[in-house]
User: Fold this.
Amino acid sequence: MAVTIKDIAREAKVAPSTVSRVIADSPKITERTKKKVRKVMDQLGYYPNFHARNLANRATKSIGIVMPASVRKGNLTFQNPFFQDVIKGISAFAHSEEYSLYITTGEAEEEIYSDVMKMVKGRRVDGIILLYSSDNDPVMEYLVDENFPFVLVGKPPEDIKNITYVDNDNYAVSRELTSFLISLGHKRIAFIGGHEKLLVTKNRLAGFLDTLLLSKITVPKTYIKHTDFIMDGGKKSVNDLLSLKEPPTAIFVTDDVLALGILNALNEKGISVPNEMNVVSFNNLFFSEFTSPPLTTVEVNIYQLGYEAARSVVELIEDENSSPKCITVPTEIIIRKSTKSLDGKNN
Amino acid sequence: MAVTIKDIAREAKVAPSTVSRVIADSPKITERTKKKVRKVMDQLGYYPNFHARNLANRATKSIGIVMPASVRKGNLTFQNPFFQDVIKGISAFAHSEEYSLYITTGEAEEEIYSDVMKMVKGRRVDGIILLYSSDNDPVMEYLVDENFPFVLVGKPPEDIKNITYVDNDNYAVSRELTSFLISLGHKRIAFIGGHEKLLVTKNRLAGFLDTLLLSKITVPKTYIKHTDFIMDGGKKSVNDLLSLKEPPTAIFVTDDVLALGILNALNEKGISVPNEMNVVSFNNLFFSEFTSPPLTTVEVNIYQLGYEAARSVVELIEDENSSPKCITVPTEIIIRKSTKSLDGKNN
DNA sequence: CTGAAAGCGCTTACAG
DNA sequence: CTGAAAGCGCTTACAG
Assistant:
């Protein structure tokens, strides 16, 4: 069996409670006793039992990470590098504060819901980070009802108030990006976004539409597409757009992974980007400078989104008086070769 | 406070031990009592405390996932989609057996080592999956010394015996891939691989070299490159190769992410793939069909690697008599447009 | 078939 | 400054 606090106590000729205090580095214990006890701990290779400690403490020093449902391979979220990157960010802060990370294993919505219930009710984690935001999400509603410390990466639905979230200003940067396309001379601009129930899609669409409206450019309904699948979805959207009487001259895409599928579909159709079609996108994923042509995209600082989310959830956990807040991570448009001025001049 | 087993017992007018047996669905309890107790559990919204249970059980139903060190951004492992995919596979099996997943948060080697120690000594997890294999890895040595249930994704170093691992037959498929290049007429073939201490790099290099040797094709030392960085590493390697008196006509790359950097570097140099240079690679990551040109690469079934690793570690945990074994996940060469016959014919 | 009791390995008021 | 005792919320032999 593993060595316990009692073994240390016996060997060091002190009480178990003293050993416990040495572990906690309590100021009440003499340096002399501490040294003595620590020596024995080293000798016996002592390591505190996680569960015993958590049980006595009613705290776990663990954070749960909730991934979005990914129905199947080919789905936009399935292999989206976004998640690996955001987890890296979470991980970095969590590590610095000695928090551990738990991830959900559910694929479908109901599974994820029960994973979250296990985490919350089973007191497995002290707080949760939700990596997506969508309307009528039972998981989010559950966390709100339970009043459990959690942070959202993304913008909350309108009907959910008083929660802490970390997000980019997707609306503002979408406006900026749309204005950029307009400044290049584009008037016929289409939109291809991920699932419409996702808040991030909504926000980006809103910025897109409002900007065009303000510029008095009308957007036909046929210009607005939503899809969840990289290959088939991208291809179908592109085909639809190209077969219109007035096809767009630029496509505003909400995710680099989706843009990858779209570039591919355009390429298969023999449409040259940026000469015959412009494409802009979001997230600046690692491959987006390697596509052909390299993508004009929005740097959203994924890692930082994760880092701030972790910082916020730890704050919620450790400071019960902390109130909900919203943290905005800056964005930047990265101009590459998938866009150029309509009149022929480069960008 | 949360509702406990005692609350249920009081309400259902039974002993706490009976409640516990109902939770475990013990056959010793009458259906009648079970029903009665379950009703109360539902009413009060009972959920077992994870830590109390683990403490009493000495088992956690959790698996620890150890990620490789990723020194910094731009590093080959940092955003490599391989890991997200392998974790999906692990996740799928774990979920089916109701295991939870813990991931390490350390970035540097020593941090990872201490994460693993925490997991093992603190009895946080019942078993571990190591997502990389390299020579003289203190983490692996520690797990072996502690005789802790773990499974390696990859091939173990030669000096480590009797461990369970899940891997592709990298040697064989590298031979196959090299033969394929030879069959296209290539004789001057260079190798660009990830870090040389990684077993996967070694295995792929060995298959590569042996095949050329058997075909009596000599490989100059200058043809063998190793790098850890996508952009700079890829660029430098390509520049070095192109400045040789006899530059290669094909490059054998060990990872799609690295290949991405290499395609980019070639493109910048104005070298056309596959007309002036062929490129083959490994892993069939999601973007590899979208590169220009699409990559000829090896499907290694990453998801399945993860799935089998999870299955194996659960077996090790639950069946103490199970002996170490090696599971080989099949591979397949996917021929795309980055390769073609040297004499001009396509593939 | 069910209950009382001990134990898993910690922490933390309460004494002294 | 240190110790004895109770408790965190479960499980599981042992009785009956």
